[in-house]
Amino acid sequence: MSTLNLVLMGLPGAGKGTQAQKIVDEFEIPHISTGDIFRAAMKNETEMGLEAKKYIDQGNLVPDSVTDGIVADRLAEDDTKVGFMLDGYPRNLEQAQALDSMTAKLNKPISAVINIHVDADVLVERLSGRFICKNCGATYHKLYNKPKVEGTCDVCGHHEFYQREDDKPETVKNRIEVNTKLNTPLIDFYNDKKLLYTVNGDQDINDVYREIQKVLRAI
């Protein structure tokens, strides 16, 4: 099989983390998540890492040019000779164009962009289903992890629950909308390049992976 250079896309709650792990385990390529490489670059005090730290310490967003530089440094490392999977990058059209340039320069072109698609309504339900016992902090989910007796905490027997602000439907909805706006131009960009493969994320985890496997084995 030829080298696999992947970009993994999906809205929050689409199950990207689970599928990323399965891809890495089977195809033995490094998982390049922007969060991880930012932390590593800052810890190792690379030129780009120090630059990023300046912005983060001031509570500002790291500009694209710095993010692009950190990704370029990571893609130039030896372990990416076997391929790689990018997760969390590119986040916008400018970054996608920068990725094009850097992969051309490194002679490591993108083989495929996997987009795990789940309807926004389903994602809101998935992400806003979490609630917490007010007394002991036990966590439940209205779809996947209900208390054994409705309205009663399994752990401490209390009956009062609350939702974190982050988990409230209106907050979740807003997060999904923001991410959809960011993702749409990227989906168009990779679709035009004939690199985009959309898989149905609204099914069993293993069925989602079977779809992804089919794509990756055909490349």
TrEMBL record:
Binding-site positions, AMP: T34, R39, N60, L61, V62, G88, Y89, P90, R91, Q95, R164, R175
Region of interest: NMP: 33-62
Enzyme Commission number, as recorded: 2.7.4.3
Alphabetized InterPro entries for the sequence: Adenyl_kin_sub, Adenylat/UMP-CMP_kin, Adenylat_kinase_CS, Adenylate_kinase_lid-dom, P-loop_NTPase
Keyword annotations of the record: ATP-binding, Cytoplasm, Kinase, Metal-binding, Nucleotide biosynthesis, Nucleotide-binding, Transferase, Zinc
Pfam families: ADK, ADK_lid
Predominant location: cytoplasm
Pathway in which the depicted protein is active: Purine metabolism; AMP biosynthesis via salvage pathway; AMP from ADP: step 1/1
Quaternary structure, from the entry: Monomer.
Annotated family: Belongs to the adenylate kinase family.
Protein name per Swiss-Prot or TrEMBL: Adenylate kinase
